[in-house]
Structure formats: structure tokens, C-alpha cells
Amino acid sequence: MARAPVLQLSDISLTFGGNPVFDGLSLVVQEGDRVALVGRNGSGKSTLMKVMAGLVEADRGSRVWGPGITVGYMEQEPDLSGFETLGDFAASQLDAAESYKVDMVAEGLKFDPATPVATASGGERRRAALAKLLAEAPGLMLLDEPTNHLDIEAIAWLEEELRLTKTAFVLISHDRAFLNHLTRATLWIDRGEVRRQEQGFEAFEEWRDKIWDEEDQQRHKLNRKIKAEARWAVEGISARRKRNMGRVRALQDLRSERASQIKRQGTAAMELEVAEKSGKRVVEADHISKSFGDRVIIRDFSIKVGRGDRIAFVGPNGAGKTTLLKMLTGEMEPDSGTIKLGTKLEMAVFDQTRSNIREDLTLWEAMTSDKEISVSGKADQVMVRGTPKHVVGYLKDFLFSEAQARAPVASLSGGEKARLLLSKIMAKPSNVLVLDEPTNDLDIETLDLLQELLTDFEGTVLLVSHDRDFIDRVATQTVAVPGDGTATLYAGGWTDYLAQRGDNGFANEKPHVKAAAKAEKPAEKASEKAAAKPAPAKSKLSFTEKHRLEALPGEIERLEAEIAKIGDLLADPELFTREPVKFRKATEMLSQRQEALMAAEEEWLTLEEKNSDA
Questions:
Q1: Cross-sheet strand order for the sheet of 295-306
Q2: Of all residues in the chain, what percent are helix, strand and coil, respectively (each to 5)?
Q3: How far apart are the first and last CA of the chain?
Q4: What Cα–Cα distance (Å) separates residue 243 from each residue in 231, 328, 431?
Q5: How far, in Å, CA of 506 to CA of 315, rounded?
Q6: For residue range 452-484, what is the model confidence (pLDDT) as tens digits?
Q7: Strand partners of residue 382
Q8: Nearest C-alpha neighbor of 335 from the set 327, 343, 325
Q9: How far apart are the C-alpha atoms of 486 and 476, rounded to whole Å?
């Protein structure tokens, strides 16, 4: 059945500063669409969303929304001026009777609607803008990087909300797992052209590479044809034959066609150079603790970080991941316990707040004012891994133009600021990389390149991230920091961590609260539920079903015991590196037992319900 369009753009052309962003662009978004909008940083993704939302008017073309369709846009930098609290802003378009929706969404996104706008952080403002959009539930949702500043738990909540919605949405995100799980179609902006594929982001890279291969083949054929025609023209002149002016004009047309082709932007020329090897021991923390006032951040945590380890720190926002990272790198002292740093450490730090990049400087000034990489006495050169290089040439390696090099840092997008910071830390050799949320705002191609560099890096990597796919690709160990003062080391990345825990990650309630609730309710097991049920006066169960109902509690208890035993085995953080085959088999067994337990509990509930209805 054909679906009605909720948005149609026709022949859209838009120019900024003399440079065309789009020319002759047309696209349709239909009812129920779940669309990934992808493209390089600076390709115009956010601009296109603003055109869709009616916030930017095109120079030419038309925008038509479907009958009765409302469009909601969540932008990266929302304007909250004129509102006293975040809740006031989020509920500004709702009736008083609907304001409860903001509270519901705020709980899932984990922010307080009563927070004054004047004191709210950038992350809280973005969460309020996202809450506003979800609470209003428009006919088309336009989501620009909604997962930025969300922790993994909030991302999972948002993912489930969007999975269940029937509303059409267009989504910009750097979170590969988020895109893979949610999208069914892909809009790709490439050199001012928008292509659409009726498959989700999971199929994007294969589609993109196929298009690029076809372009390369066509360009190769065109070059061969131009070469052949040019040879004919030269030979015709040298032999003083009358030239075929039609072929000469055709040659000119071919050259014009080649000149009009827009060159693909390459990937950033990022490179990591390992400094002299550090000592075998990089960091050793022994029973460290840290508190701020009455709040315990980390309690009695120990870890040994060896040369070459790649450790991810995961947990909710505010749980203490960055604090733990600062203690392990010597930037902050623990309240108790000891931290020993290894020898010959050369650290490079990627700060999530970008605090070491001054917004008022130009890119040129930001690079040459950095004492660690500037060439003494040279205002136009930086030291790149031991070799002087012109600042503009080095910035071009990170996809910045000469015009951008002379522009202020404040004019850059979030992804461009991240690339600038990467250019600074990659200019000098290092053997320890400390990366606090490096993936925010980066485009997919740059993320892929960064992942490859980290995988091949022979030094040590300490990583804080909420990007599940990135953690899986990079980390060999994961430290879970749930926010209750504990920190636990697991082998492998995010998926391995989930398998070892046997759940979906961080629970909505604090672990110590959850544990206390379990202690107060020992009768939660299905076997005890069964014992607590009164005997029915008359059974509707067959003889086989009665027997099965009686046998299931014992089977459930056996499976629970096996899961606990496998969990104890996988809790050994050295198992992954010491016995990888055993670790893999144990992980597979754990998954099988968990599936069997779920099936048994479902069967018990079904039979018990049938028995109780007698």
C-alpha cells in the first residue's frame, strides 16, 4: 500500500557565502519513515534539516508538508531565552493538562525539569530540547545528534522510545549502533547531492562504496576517451589534415564534463606516532577512594594498567568516569589509597569539554600558540611528529581549508572542533592516549579512521565513551562505573560486558537499591511464586501440563544456579586474555542458559495463569 508523503522538497537550491550547498535537490519523506541522514561534517546535514523544518528558506524550490502534519526539530544548540526553567521550555507548546508528558520523558533522559535555564549545562539544554520534541509528538520528528550528551542508559531508553513510535523521523547521529537499530532508509548527502536508499544505515557503507566504485570506473573511462581524442587532435594537426571540428568540439565538451565533476573529499590524514615505549606498568591503583562532600565517587578500587591495554570506562553521566580517569592519570589525587604511574609516559589528552581550545583564537593561532607543538620563533609552523610543517598544510590534512585556518574556532561545528583537537594531540608522539568522549560529533568516516588508528596503536588507550559500537571495536577491557561508588573491571568491550553481567547494562535504579530490593523480596523466584499460589479448585491443565508445571520450578532453579556459576567464572578479568577459548565458550553457555531461563519462566507463567483461571 502506498504511503502518504509527510514532507516533500522539490528543486531546492541554497547558497551560503557564495558557495552552493544544494542545487536542484528533491526528496520525499513518507508516513512511518525511519530515515538516517548521513554525510561528512560540513556537508549540510543540519542545514538540510532546517530547510525541512522551515527554519531556513531556500533560494529556490518548494517545501510541502502533508495535510495536518506538524514538524518538530531538535537542534544541536537550542535557544532557551525567555524561559525560567528547563521544564518551562520543554512544556511551552503543551496544554497544562499535558505537562506530565515532560516529566515522563525527563525521567528517561535523566534531567530535572526544575533546573534553572541560567545554570543549566549544554547537555541539560539539549536534553530539554529533546524532551520538548518527544512530549509534543509531532507528525514528523527531525533529530539532529540526539544522543550527544546522553549516557548509555539514556541512549537505550531513547532507542526504545523511537523503536516503538509510529511517527516518521529523520535522524542525524554518529552512533552507529543507534542508527543500525532504528533506521529503515538512508538519505546520503554527498557533494551537494542527496541520494536515497530503501535500506537502513546497516547497508549504507556497502551502498556508498558501490557508488564510489562506479564513479571511479566512469571517470577512468572518461579520462581514456579524452586521452584518445586528444591524441587524434595532435596527430591531425601534425599531419596537416583538415581537422574534424565536430570532434574538436566533442573533445572540449569531454574536458568540460571532467572539470565539472566535483572531487570527492578524502578522509582526514590522521596519524598516530608512538613515542618511546613506556614501562611495562603504566598505572597501578591500589584501593583508591574519592568523595566530594557526602557523595562517594569511587570506593576501594584497584586496577593494574599494562602497556598496550585499551580500557573503556562506561557508566551513567555523573557516575565518576572522568574523575576516575583523572586520578589514574595523576591529574587528581585520591582521598585514600595509592596510585603509581609507570616510567617514560608520554600522555596525549582529548578533553570532552575542549577546554584547551580557546574559542576566540583562529585555528591558525590555536595551533601556533600551543607551546608543545609550535616551532620556536615561527608564527606559521608547527612541529608534527618531529618535523616542522606549515600550519595551513597540516590543517588541510584534517580537512580544513585555508579560509577556515584564518577563521575563529567559535565558527566551527562540533565535529570540526573535535577534528581540531585531534590534530593537536596527534602532532606529537605519545604512548598513552587519554580520550574523554572523543566520538561526539565526528562523522562516520572519521570515526572509522580513528578506530583503525587506535586498534593499531602500540601504546595504551584509556577511553571514556557512550558509543557502544566504538567501545566494541576498540576496547580490550571495560570498567563499569554505575554511580554507586563501585567500579568493576570486565574483559572485552561493551557486548562482552553485557554478556558477563547477563542483563542490558545499567539498571534504571542504583545497583545498591536494586540489591536491597532483592534482599527484601526473597520470594521473587518462580519456584517460590509457584509455592505461594493457592491450589485451584479445578484444573484446566492436561496431565502432561500438570506434570510440566510441577517440574518447571526445579528446572528454573537449576538454570539460575548454572547462570550464577558461569557468571562467577566470567568475573575473572584475566580469563579473556589467559584462556580466550574458554572465555568464548563460557559466554556462549551463559547466553544459552539465559535464553532457556526466560523460556522456562514464560512457560511457567502461561501454565500457572491457565491453572488459576480454572
A1: 295-306, 281-292, 336-341
A2: 45, 20, 35
A3: 44
A4: 13, 77, 65
A5: 7
A6: 888 888 899 999 999 999 999 999 999 999 999
A7: 374, 389
A8: 327
A9: 20
Could you read off the pLDDT of 562-585 as tens digits, one per residue? 888 887 777 776 776 677 777 777
Grid cell 579560509 is found at: 403
Question: With left for phi above 0 and alpha for psi between -120 and 50, is residue 474 left, alpha or beta?
Answer: alpha
| DSSP conformation letters of 538-607 | S----HHHHHHHHHHHHHHHHHHHHHHHHHHHHT-TTHHHH-HHHHHHHHHHHHHHHHHHHHHHHHHHHH
**Residues in Cβ contact with 144 at an 8 Å cutoff, skipping those fewer than 6 apart:** 45, 46, 49, 73, 74, 75, 76, 172
On the 0-12 / 13-18 / 19+ scale of CB atoms within 10 A, 574 is exposed
User: How many C-alpha atoms does 170 have within 13 Å on its Cβ side?
Assistant: 27
- 399-403, Cβ contacts within 8 angstroms, sequence gap of 24 or more: 399/41, 399/42, 399/265, 399/266, 399/268, 400/363
Phi-psi map region of 562: left, alpha, beta (phi>0 left; psi -120 to 50 alpha):
alpha
Q: Provide the 8-state DSSP code for 54.
A: T
What residues are paired with 19 via a beta bridge?
16
Q: What H or E segment, with its residue span, contains residue 255?
A: helix 245-260
Question: What are φ and ψ of residue 14, in 5° steps?
Answer: -150, 135
Residues 6+ apart with CB under 8 A from 188: 38, 39, 194, 195, 196, 197, 204, 207, 208
Q: For residue 70, how far is the Cα from the chain centroid?
A: 28
Burial class (CB in 10 A: 0-12, 13-18, 19+), 249: exposed
pLDDT in tens, 507-559: 443 333 333 333 333 444 444 444 444 444 445 677 677 777 888 888 888 88
Give dist(CA 417, CA 30) in Å, integer.
Answer: 34
- In three-state form (DSSP H/G/I as H, E/B as E, the rest C), the secondary structure along 137-181 is CCCEEEEECCCCCCCHHHHHHHHHHHHHCCCEEEEECCCHHHHHH
The phi-psi region of residue 174 (left if phi > 0; otherwise alpha if psi is between -120 and 50; otherwise beta) is alpha
Q: In whole angstroms, what is the distance from residue 348 CA to residue 373 CA? A: 12
What does the DSSP 8-state code read for residue 293?
T
Packing angle between helix 580-612 and helix 494-501, nearest 10 degrees?
50
C-alpha cell of 146? 540526539
* Amino acid at the residue 30: Q
User: Which residue blocks in 457-542 are alpha helix, DSSP H?
Assistant: 468-474, 494-501, 511-520, 526-532
Confidence of residue 22 (pLDDT cuts 50, 70, 90): confident
Residue with grid cell 583503525, as numbered in its chain: 452
Q: Tell me the residue type at 97.
A: A
pTM for this entry? 0.68
Residue with cell 588507550: 461
Least Cα distance to 185 among 175, 171, 173 occurs for: 171
DSSP assignment letter at 384: E
Cell numbers describing residue 583: 572465555
